[in-house]
Amino acid sequence: MAATTSWVPADAKGDFSIHNLPFGIFSTSSGAPRAGVRIGDSIVDLKALSSDPAAAGLKSIHGAAASFAQPTLNAFAESGRATHKGVRAELQAILGGSDSLLQSNDALKQKVLVPVSQAKMHLPMQIGDYTDFYAGYNHAFKVGVLFRGPDNALQPNYTHIPVGYHGRSSSIVVSGTPIQRPRGQILPNPAAAEKIPVTAACKRFDYELELAAFICKPTQMGDSVDVNEADEYIFGYVLLNDWSARDIQAWEYIPLGPFNGKNFGSTISPWIVTGDALEPFRTEPLENKTAIQPYLQQSQKKSVYDIKLQTTINTNGKTDGSIISETSAKNLLWSFPQMVAHHTYGGCNLRAGDMLGSGTISGTELRERGSLLEMTEGGKQDFEIGQGKVRRFLEDGDSVVMYGYCEKEGIRVGFGDCEGTILPAKAL
Q: What are the Fumarylacetoacetase-like C-terminal domain coordinates in residue numbering (predicted)?
């Protein structure tokens, strides 16, 4: 895997190198939301580039001009993996060190390269449906121990199927959008014989460190996707903070699962990193010792990515939060292709823009856990978050920032920030 350089200056962390080139939707004061690609601290305005006569020789980019003018990436995503690959290859060519089309054309360069500081990011996709899985084995086991004890930590189905539930797509927001503390029914004394709830603001507010995939290839109702072809149905990946109101969820989730404890908000990073960019970082998932059904058996053994995932909590508007947890996306028992195969096995149709969440990703050690629920043993002990402060659960004004990146042989591919700041609950 040889490193390639670009004449565009790199960003400080190097997340957005020429090896990455993730897709997103941005706007400026002089233009409506449109498609772009991030490189360094610049955005390639794909609408401007694809419509300029000087770029007519870029067949894939020019051919996708209509979709680049849209306020979401849905149409471009649905054009298929071959088109995505073609556009990415042409961008690597014109952004590489030997290009003259863009590098030496000052007028075109000024038109096409937009400083990130001048851009506002938007949700990259119109999300029709959102399914959240529970594929992070270590998280599922730890939470199971907290709720049911070590002898009954996992439900009998956990190693047989990618367990999931249908979430709420309307409340998914892009990084930087504040999240209001939710209200709901809470059981003030779970140990009491008579279960009488109260209505109040959430007191056990938590984050969940996840990865999410966007669907690009729709399916017909009644059809199913072969697990070994499922990668062709995935446009790319983002970071996901699937916020959780633990106390609201604890009272409501039996017998049908999460509802108001989850539907108030989920935050994603703005740049969709393609599978092509992540390809060099493939690795094997956690071992599943259960004999799984044939429709979930993959020929690709390296079916997940070694994406380093980090979380910080900034307080009172400060941005000096230290990393409180660090884990890897390889801590999944089920891969996204397996999630797609299982999701469609019964005939459920997928649409371009549908989003699949991984579930909370945790390692086995304290500083590898992807939620405060795990770190504080269910809220029973303080956890040091840096800056001389501790938390059991999140407080108003806390800003949770997640990062993700892959690094190998001098090449780095990153996701940027996934950030949300907690606002106080509205008055009852």
A: 136-420
